[in-house]
Write a sequence for this structure.
């Protein structure tokens, strides 16, 4: 697991671009949250952030934000997944936000990782929160993630994502009908997530 980090402020509070914060938790005995019997806290301020989670907050095309994460923790559905532990999930205007939390080998509960996925495309496209480009980007990212090491030209071809989003070391986009995503910086083309994350950008 990535190391536990606080926010940039001296008082230990992390803020997003809208100034909403999740504070670092006080030191508490470590409990392995991968245990289905150890139900995690519903208090968003109890969680610190792993390095991995902080990187995901900054990545374009992930649509993660601290306000949405806090909402998922307070009010979302909570389920235990054997692969990665406890997950909070909430659907906002047709888009599902999933946040994975943990507490294995750390001094306090932590936000481990998170992602977005389209739960109801019609609702998402019709909402004021998400643009059609947002919905296309989330759908494309999900398709690549679900396929992982398999090429998925059929899932890429219907998507129109003109604004590059970050995946692996690349800023990728795709035009309608293309069976690949293309890096805006180095021009490399990819049909699978595995190829994206294994190849360094030559920018």
């Amino acid at each position: 697991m990535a190391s536990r980090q606080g926010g940039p402020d001296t008082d230990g509070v992390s803020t997003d671009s809208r100034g909403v914060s999740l504070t670092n938790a006080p030191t508490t005995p470590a409990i392995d949250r991968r245990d289905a019997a150890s139900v995690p806290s519903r208090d968003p301020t109890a969680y610190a952030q792993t390095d991995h989670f902080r990187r995901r907050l900054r990545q374009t095309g992930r649509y993660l934000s601290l306000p949405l994460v806090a909402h998922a923790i307070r009010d979302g559905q909570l389920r235990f997944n054997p692969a990665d532990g406890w997950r909070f999930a909430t659907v906002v205007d047709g888009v599902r936000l999933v946040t994975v939390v943990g507490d294995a080998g750390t001094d306090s509960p932590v936000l481990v990782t998170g992602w977005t996925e389209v739960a109801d495309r019609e609702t998402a496209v019709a909402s004021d929160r998400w643009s059609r480009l947002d919905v296309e980007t989330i759908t494309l990212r999900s398709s690549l993630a679900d396929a992982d090491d398999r090429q998925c030209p059929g899932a890429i071809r219907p998507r129109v994502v003109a604004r590059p989003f970050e995946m692996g070391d690349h800023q990728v986009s795709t035009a309608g009908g293309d069976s690949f995503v293309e890096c805006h910086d180095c021009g490399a083309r990819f049909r699978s997530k595995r190829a994206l994350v294994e190849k360094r950008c030559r920018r």
Observations:
- The CA atoms of residues 51 and 75 lie 25 Å apart.
